[in-house]
């Protein structure tokens, strides 16, 4: 019986995001469930290149949580430090995973 993959969301589509995506692929057990970026061109390109459904590409964390197919097991925040201040309150703790 195969183990259910954990679901990750990448916030910020820059060079570091590509490294994280590659790490997820190398280590297995993870799927990229959604991506977030305020730059819609980068967002469209990343979704297309990484094989993420258009419905899983968002311009804000709030959109991803409200309209995405959560829950997500991991959020990889790869935005510049100055954009992260005040964002931690958006995420809620993950409860037990089946």
Structural write-up:
Helices cover 32% and strands 19% of the residues. Strands 3-2-1-4 form a 4-stranded parallel sheet. It is of the alpha/beta class. It is built from 3 helices and 4 strands, in the order βαβαβαβ. The radius of gyration is 13 Å and the shape is globular.
Count of extended strands: 4
Strand order of the largest sheet: 3-2-1-4
What string, H for helix and E for strand, traces the elements in order?
Answer: EHEHEHE
Could you report the average pLDDT, rounded to the nearest whole number?
82
Helical percent range? Answer: 25-40%
> What sort of overall outline do the alpha carbons produce when their principal axes are compared?
globular
Cα end-to-end separation: 14 Å
Q: What class do helices, strands and sheet pairing give?
A: alpha/beta
Output the number of helix runs.
Answer: 3
Runs with pLDDT <50, length 5+?
none
Supply Rg: 13 Å
Strand content: 15-25%
Q: Tell me about the biggest sheet? A: 4 strands, parallel
Brief account:
This protein is an alpha/beta fold and 98 residues long. The chain is 32% helix and 19% strand.
Fold blueprint:
Layout: E1 6-11, H1 15-27, E2 30-36, H2 40-50, E3 57-58, H3 61-67, E4 74-77
Parallel strand pairs: 1-2, 1-4, 2-3
Keywords:
single chain, 98 residues, alpha/beta, 4 strands, 32% helix, globular
């Amino acid at each position: 019986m195969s183990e259910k993959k954990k679901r990750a969301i990448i916030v910020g589509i820059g060079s570091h995001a590509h490294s994280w995506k590659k790490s997820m692929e190398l280590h297995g057990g993870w799927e990229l469930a959604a991506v977030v970026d305020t730059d819609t061109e980068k967002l469209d390109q990343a979704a297309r290149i990484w094989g993420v459904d258009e419905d899983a590409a968002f311009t804000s964390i709030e959109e991803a949580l409200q309209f995405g197919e959560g829950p997500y097991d991991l959020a990889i925040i790869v935005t510049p430090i100055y954009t992260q201040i005040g964002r931690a309150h958006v995420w809620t703790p993950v409860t037990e995973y089946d």
